[in-house]
């Protein structure tokens, strides 16, 4: 088991994708491990997989393998491993009908292992399996292959093809020399052996024997190089497919604001290069058949190259620009699909790409469904090649969903929780390939709505899907619960993306959000590992409110983006809990409201807290927060003890110059009347006060946060207001 002993330490460096392809489900890694010695003792290379006369011998090997595996299972003290091995031994029965397939599988595994170890030897100065590209971890911890290393693999493949071509040319030269020597040998045969020229005959005979030996060695080397090249191509292409899947995963995560490099240029170059290598290897294989007939391994290599080619062609269709993930019926939208092998398509008839909408259940089937669940308008587009950008794309510019057929809903499931997708299909032919290929690509999940009031809830479904789904999942399964710390990452990423700020949410913000979603305002413990459910996120309304956590958080993002982005980015205030008295979100209205608290000193030495009438978004549109703070004369300093003009100077509006038409400019000024006692609370003069002017006996505490001393934001959400015709006019009625 020398080969397995060398291979075992390297397994930890192999990506899961490579391991799954190296050890398929029909021959799992466990079999290779437990039967390593026996497997390496068998003469798998002596089989001609196309010779049915060797099938009885292959069946004997299969029976022996099953028996050995069962013996290993019986003597295994670990009951879990014992049951697992017994299950695997039963599954090996799939080879009973085609025992030669077992021979092919084991032989290919051993070849790939030898190739991998050869590659490690070639790069002995580097960590094991560096040639298998591993990039930085993704957000969910899944390793991503590095694009730059893929170029190194392709370069090595190209060199391997050149070596095969040189070997072929050497064989051709040897054959010509051999033909010449044989011809000369025939011309001197039959002469008197005592003739002095007879020594020349012996010399030529020796030369012919040497040429024949050299030819035989070179021919074997040619086949060996072909086998190595095919194995290397399979591994390199597996890395490419993994990178394409990673690109799609990164594109999916971009919905919640995760950084995403959408440049497909390097992947397109990689695809085109591998297609060229595949074409050259197929050509070299046919030349082997021409020169030597159908030699051993010919059909195996031919099948491998055909399979690799089909996989490459089918995985090169990607959705470059995704459709909106919340689509309203009767509304226009666009999407772009790109084919990474577009320059290699056979010229002639235009390639028409067709789109159709499919359900989650249909997406799981993986085949083009016969049943239409929706009517798409402008659902076809032609794959067009742009010579300037070298891109081949089909752009659906004015697509629209006219109607949609919904599935039966379970329990309290709403229409905004139902996920669909767009399926793109076409048939095309690649230059150098005889038969056309049917290929398809699927979009990210979308939610179809019929009214604008459903958009926020539909977006909640999309956010949950993008943030918490796993790579290579069954479409479109998501967990019902996730750890709170994972939710924090998603909320912060979405907040930064939506507000367009570089300042993320911090631990104070997360603690406040946890208190809100878990309805535990008095708990100070760490919420990191507490599970949060989809129902808590956007099905159950917050206690005492008429809206969900997501609906409330979406309102926070909307207000911050439209009215307070610069203040947030500069760190002027924090999103925190109601105890901090810096930012307060209160849920009694649909509008996002900003309220300022002012502390007054009374003539009797007491102190009063005055709530200024909340500012609506319309108020802040007419005069910004900075200008309003400047205008409130009773506010002179902000925490810890800074003049308000120093803190807010950069946010003040520059006075308008005189109008050229002679009119005097005017401005809106915020005036506060402290004499109005309707919202004033009088506090005895000897009451201890905290830094926010609050009685220490009050339930309010504080958090040490910079700048705004008396500033609060009250956020609310009133569902009825969502449907009000006055929503966009900034009119508020509590």
Strand and helix map with partners:
Layout (H helix, E strand, L loop, with lengths): L1 H6 L8 H7 L6 H6 L1 H6 L13 H20 L4 H13 L7 H24 L24 H42 L9 H56 L11 H28 L5 H18 L1 E5 L4 E3 L3 E8 L12 E8 H6 L8 E4 L2 E3 L1 E3 L4 E14 L15 E9 L8 E6 L4 E3 L5 H14 L12 E3 H16 L7 H11 L13 E3 H5 L10 H21 L22 E10 L5 E5 L5 H6 L2 H7 L5 E2 L3 E2 H5 L31 E4 L27 E5 L3 H4 L12
Parallel strand pairs: 2-11
Antiparallel strand pairs: 1-3, 3-8, 4-6, 4-9, 5-8, 7-8, 9-10, 12-13, 14-15, 14-19, 15-18, 16-17
Helix pairs in contact: 5-6, 5-7, 7-9, 8-9, 8-10, 9-10, 9-11, 10-11
Pfam family, one: STAT_alpha
Family: Belongs to the transcription factor STAT family.
Protein name: Signal transducer and activator of transcription 6, interleukin-4 induced
Number of helices: 21
Give the structural class. alpha+beta
Report the β-strand fraction as a percent range.
Answer: 5-15%
CA radius of gyration: 36 Å
Roughly how much helix do the residues carry, as a percent range? Answer: 40-55%
Rough outline: elongated
Distance between the termini: 79 Å
Mean pLDDT across the residues is: 80
Which sheet architecture does the biggest sheet show? 5 strands, antiparallel
As residue ranges, the low-confidence spans are: 122-148, 576-595, 677-734
What is the number of strand segments? 19
Protein name: Signal transducer and activator of transcription 6, interleukin-4 induced
GO molecular function: DNA-binding transcription activator activity, RNA polymerase II-specific; RNA polymerase II transcription regulatory region sequence-specific DNA binding
Subcellular location: Cytoplasm; Nucleus
Pfam families: STAT_alpha, STAT_bind, STAT_int, STAT_linker
